[in-house]
Amino acid sequence: MEKDKVVVALGRSAFGNTLPEQKKKVSLAAKAIADLVAENYEVIITHSNGPQVGMIQTALTEFSRIDPEFTAAPMSVCSAMSQGYIGYDLQNAIRTELLNRGIFKPVSTIITQVKVDPFDPAFDAPTKVIGRFMTKNEAEIEEHKGNYVVYEESNAGKGYRRIIASPYPIDIYEIDAVKALVDAGQIVIAAGGGGIPVLEQGTVLKGASAIIEKDYTAAKLADMLNASTLLFLTSAQKLSIEDESGAKKELGLLSSSDAAELVDKGYFNKTTTLPKVQSALNFVQAGEGRRAVITSLENAKDGMHERTGTIIC
Length: 313
Prior knowledge:
Layout: E1 5-10, H1 19-38, E2 42-47, H2 52-66, H3 75-100, E3 107-110, E4 113-115, E5 128-134, H4 136-144, E6 148-154, E7 157-164, E8 171-172, H5 175-183, E9 187-190, E10 196-201, E11 204-207, H6 214-224, E12 229-234, E13 240-242, E14 248-250, E15 253-254, H7 256-264, H8 273-285, E16 291-296, H9 300-304, E17 310-312
Parallel strand pairs: 1-2, 1-12, 2-9, 3-9, 4-10, 12-16, 15-17
Antiparallel strand pairs: 4-8, 5-7, 6-7, 10-11, 13-14, 16-17
């Protein structure tokens, strides 16, 4: 009998902001994953890579300034590094948690490339902020290179920062490898950070200066694997909106038509909640008998049993 496939999308709250924080937090994520494995689900994991990819990009850029013999790493390389780094911590934490429960199940991380369209409008309207704050002079140099910059003020500081495109995922090149490992009984970590965005040029895959929205890639991965559930694990137990009176309303079970109506009416934050809901709809509406669950890491098991969380079906 074929097991139900669950694609688990871990948000940035599962990793923290520093190396020690990540080491500690992945153990909590591992417990949630192990709970699903213990219930006999086939589990495939994808994850955020913010702020890790920004840390890597900033570090390598600064290194190139200190030693001009070394060039700054392109975003595609930084994305690959973040997949390896997060996958390393996550797969070891999951392995340990499973063995402590008497379960032997291999865990593998796949460096995953995702096809994007070179003519995607996102390349003309970048939205993803990346890297450290720059001076006006440094920002002008970046613009001279053809890069986009924006002025930003926040609690972290103020100045100019680079912004890059967030194109839509079209295809996942390593999907056959993911399927083979899942069929072999392994837990697979794939398409971290939305995957490495690449442009297809003949037989060559060229890294794009972009960051793909991780939620859209999670839905693409779940669809290509024909998963039954797409489980978003974030910081909130349920999604919430403000109704016409300004009162906060938590969202539980929603039909896809009800969720689509809330999207059309603009109830969701464009940079945080909206991509999750749109991704959930993309996944659910692309096949029969599918559902998307959005809940917190601590409530993953209860969310799968629909005892909590926002469920779209």
